[in-house]
Design brief:
Bound molecules: flavin-adenine dinucleotide
Radius of gyration: 18 Å
Number of strands: 8
Shape: globular
Order of helices and strands: HEHEHEHEHEHEHEHHHEHH
Strand content: 15-25%
Largest sheet: 8 strands, parallel, barrel
Structural class: alpha/beta
Strand order of the largest sheet: 1-2-3-4-5-6-7-8
Helix content: 40-55%
Distance between the termini: 16 Å
Length: 292
């Protein structure tokens, strides 16, 4: 089923998982995680794709399991990165053979230590989208509540977000953020320039091994002072720290749902316990997502 058809009927609860980095690594642990995530009745589960494409087989394998064994709709990521036209064709054929309908089209980021030609065939996600047009997939795209790190301004970034929609993206998932006001600003500005598609907020609960500085550096997400202070104050108490992280994510979700977000996408970091802990805290609020 196309995820935008689900979004047309109800708000969605979804999760992101990432497959093992190498194609020959065992995926069993992740498959069990997916079985556990299923207990939370997600509308879809997204599966990341390595920036170098080196674990592409695992993305297909995991997305195929989600669709054909777990009976959940997968959203398989594709990064343009080092891919050639033939690579993309091959991957799309594989997705098709697994009945995968929904794809998140991305550019990817060249790893700093990688000595390869990057984005030779597809400079941006929009080029990948252009290439995928008419190939029978429902396409989603990424967006950035605080603007993409390479962009001069949020408004320039929004221009490309609009281009993504014009090229057929039927919904967006945001970069992780810890201050909901950036999400509301993004949605307001997107609507102002005519972007109509659902914009699903991406939330990453702070868990035991989280590293806020790393998240901030990688994603450019602002960490609100109150939250930063709490984490700093209890940095030597992992149990308490997790409690803070789960409750903070729960607070963000309550606020987002109350203000009408079209769904919630949890970056699970392959940890079903984290997703369960957050959902448990807002059991009745989450039920709002399941209403048609
Ligand atoms: P683009 O849309 O190409 O944007 C990159 C920059 O170029 C932005 O500054 C944008 O404003 C600008 N731009 C966009 N289009 C154009 C254009 N046509 N002309 C000129 N400039 C343009 N990475 C992975 O490696 N694997 C994953 O599975 C993965 N999943 C992700 C999921 C989500 C929800 C998000 C938010 C990010 C994910 N990423 C993933 C990270 C992503 O690859 C990086 O954020 C990357 O830097 C940008 O990807 P993009 O698709 O937004 O790129």
């Amino acid at each position: 089923m196309k995820i935008n058809d689900i979004l047309a009927k109800k708000r969605t609860l979804s999760f992101e998982v990432f497959p093992p980095k190498k194609n020959d690594e065992n995926c069993d642990k992740l498959l069990r995680t997916i079985d556990e995530l299923k207990e939370l009745n997600p509308d879809f589960i997204s599966v990341t794709y390595g920036a170098l494409g080196s674990n592409s087989k695992n993305t297909s394998r995991i997305a195929g399991y989600i669709k054909n064994e777990a009976g959940i709709e997968p959203l398989a990521h594709i990064t343009a990165g080092p891919s050639s036209y033939e690579d993309i064709d091959r991957l799309l054929e594989e997705y098709k053979s697994l009945n995968i309908e929904n794809v998140l089209a991305l550019r990817g980021d060249k790893p700093v230590d990688a000595d390869i030609e990057y984005c030779k065939y597809f400079k941006h996600a929009t080029d990948l989208q252009e290439y995928m047009k008419g190939k029978g997939f429902n396409i989603a795209a990424a967006c950035y509540p605080e603007g993409h790190q390479e962009c001069d301004s949020l408004y320039e970034d929004l221009k490309y977000m609009k281009m993504k929609e014009d090229l057929g993206a039927t919904f967006f998932i945001t970069q992780v953020f810890y201050d909901n006001s950036y999400y509301y600003r993004l949605v307001n500005e997107a609507r102002r320039i005519g972007i109509k598609s659902p914009i699903i907020p991406g939330i990453m609960p702070y868990a035991r091994n989280s590293n806020l500085k790393k998240v901030q550096k990688m994603c450019g997400s602002t960490i609100p002072l109150d939250f930063r202070n709490m984490v700093e104050r209890y940095k030597d108490n992992p149990v308490l720290l997790e409690e803070i992280g789960f409750n903070y994510a729960a607070y963000q979700i309550i606020d987002l749902i109350a203000k009408g977000a079209p769904g919630v996408h949890l970056y699970t970091m392959n940890n079903a316990r984290v997703a369960k802990e957050v959902c448990k805290r807002i059991e009745n609020v989450i039920k709002e997502l399941f209403k048609a």
